[in-house]
């Protein structure tokens, strides 16, 4: 029986704000705890994820290794994450300023990079700063310490297998593991930085 969960390949923002260098490298290892399943082997856990980086880190990544390709506002790292999934960096002019982003694109799909670029531009051109529930959950997963998050294995109920779980604190049960997707609004707020807790919520893309 397969326990592979359905993972979207649609572009999705996984961190609010500009990643620090430490956060950027942590995000590169965001799925280090994931099971060695089909999603990991094919890069399916990564495809579509994106976040903003600083200009300095964008330029630094360009200089670390010869890029796989460089086309105007875009370059790809020469090492693949898995299969044909690569780290792609963008320098995009938004609202009169130049901003920099990293995303995972499946280069086996010729439209992948253009779809990622269009999704970032559409999301970052929102008239007000906001976050969807999905983005809030992804931000929590991206920033919580590895000792407080995991992918459920055989120690957990079969319905949890392969899914993301995080530690929460209960007045009656103490420290418990809970599915990330099942966090209540109060639990989500408690795990978000104060400045993000009251941002307007938007529907997931």
Structural class: alpha+beta
Largest sheet: 6 strands, mixed
Major sheet: order of its strands? 1-2-6-5-4-3
Low-confidence segments:
none
Global mean pLDDT: 90
Query: Shape, please?
Result: globular
Strand content: 25-35%
Helix content: 25-40%
Q: How far is it from the N-terminal to the C-terminal residue, by CA? A: 31 Å
Write structural notes for this entry.
The protein is of the alpha+beta class. It contains 7 helices and 11 strands. The chain has helices at residues 21-28, 38-42, 55-64, 112-124, 133-143, 185-191, 194-197; strands at residues 12-19, 49-53, 69-71, 74-82, 85-94, 97-106, 131-132, 149-151, 164-170, 174-179, 201-202. The strands form 3 sheets. A 6-stranded mixed β-sheet has the order 1-2-6-5-4-3. Strands 8-9-10 form a 3-stranded antiparallel β-sheet, with no helix packed on it. A two-stranded parallel ribbon has the order 7-11. Strand 4 and strand 5 form a beta hairpin. The radius of gyration is 17 Å and the shape is globular. It starts with 11 loop residues before the first strand and ends with a strand.
Layout of helices and strands, plus pairs?
Elements: E1 12-19, H1 21-28, H2 38-42, E2 49-53, H3 55-64, E3 69-71, E4 74-82, E5 85-94, E6 97-106, H4 112-124, E7 131-132, H5 133-143, E8 149-151, E9 164-170, E10 174-179, H6 185-191, H7 194-197, E11 201-202
Parallel strand pairs: 1-2, 7-11
Antiparallel strand pairs: 2-6, 3-4, 4-5, 5-6, 8-9, 9-10
